[in-house]
Amino acid sequence: MIGLNGAKSILNQSGDPLRQSIFANFVDRLEEADLKPSGKNLTPARLRIEILSGLTVALALVPEAVAFAFVAGVDPLVGLYAAFIVGLITALIGGRPGMISGATGALAVVMVALVANNGVEYLFATVVLMGLIQLFVGFMHWGKFMRLVPHPVMLGFVNGLAIVIFLAQMSQFQVPGTAGAGGGHGMASGDWLTGTPLYLMLALTALTMAIIWIWPKITALVPAPLAGIGIIAIIVLMFQLDTPVVGDLASIKGGFPPFHVPSVPFTLETFYIILPYSMILAAIGLIESLLTLNLVGEITNKRGGASQECIAQGVANTVTGFFGGMGGCAMIGQSMINVKSGGRTRIAGTAAALFLLAFILFASGLIERIPLAALVGVMFMVVIGTFAWNSFKIMTKVPRMDAFVIVLVTVVTVMTDLATAVVVGVIVSALAYAWSNAKRIYANTEITEDGAKVYKINGPLFFGSADGFVELFQFDDDPKSVIIDFEGSRVADQSALQAIENVAAKYEDVGKAIQLRHLTHDCHQLLSKAGHLIVDSDDDPDYEIAVDYSVRTGIIGGH
Q: Is the four-CA dihedral 109, 114, 115, 120 of positive or negative sign?
């Protein structure tokens, strides 16, 4: 068998730089995959923690996958197959060990209309195209743009998703068999439990939460969520308590996911039907996955690979579409369960996927007897641990705009979807930043010995500050010679070019001329490309002394 070093040697001999770059990065990631059969990361104690953490996650995945399948209007096995395949592939090659992926409510709510109007086969084709789009994003390294997401947006994302996870559990407090798909975020619209069944459900949920809170103080041998599920299941079975169980949602018994090419016409019409859904699903999936990657990285103090995560999600969804799955992305709730249970390597995620497959193939009867109250209790503890409670404390300490963005992203996440919320949050933050910088432009003036007036500009010159820049000048009162000094400023965009041209034109109209001084190299290039600078043949933008440039007007024109 060829080792990783051997694989690198073969790649170096291939001669294709692009191929070498892609696969060399992949091999490097495998070396850090925490799947090595020996070493400090795989002691017996670590292996036990990882496997038990994976089992806990798998148990929590079952009702989530079934519920989200109901939301999307497909068979429960479609959700379970997606949870298995997406979870397995992303656990093996994803950008962050410890993350859990599977069928999610954020994707399910988008799928409803597609399934209702075109059928489940179109959903499978959509998932395949969704995966291909995510692969393209990964190979183009567009995941790096997630660093543009401000921290207030991250806080809003975390808070909103915690609320969404909480709302998704409300369907478990409804009479089994009455749930529809009208509530959004996995919150089905059915008949609520009343009387004794409701009180018993609430009591068992509260008891599960209490066990999870107390258990770490007793022992660390078994993850607290798994202990909570096991103890509640034993209590329900011993006392024959009449409370909803997993089997009341649907049967999870099935076979191995069969290979299946989506039965849709391979025509442009089909492509036009599935393309909008694929793009929306790809965007939501990647945004949720990359934000979860950042969140898990903050908790574990380890960096993740954004581009690798995009590629892993793309591979997972492409494969899932050919095996009858509804697609998926990173699941912050299950990822938090895994991390809080001690899962830190790829083994936990892999074990969770394999346990889930084992439940489907061999242990459906046993899993279907687990009380829903125990799983709800686990998810409620996830909600408590996920919500950024310190955001209430910092609201009065951060700028008002940042506080507004936190609330805005939280509300939009709950009311619509994650992708929309993040885009809205980034846009509002960017506009707030632009407005803040637009107010920072000002000028100091001085008169030279030869009578020229120098405007020393401070602050960035861009679309937001262009009008303010023009208002700095006194066209009628200034002398014949005016110098604009950009030592403390930067010329950023076309709006800045237009502003400079407007100023030059206004001075021309009153028979005066301007010159530009102290242009940085990139500003010089921008103005030269636009044709604004009148440059001498011996000009060098990397100057050591002040060089004055005349301005050519009429290049861009007026409004």
A: negative
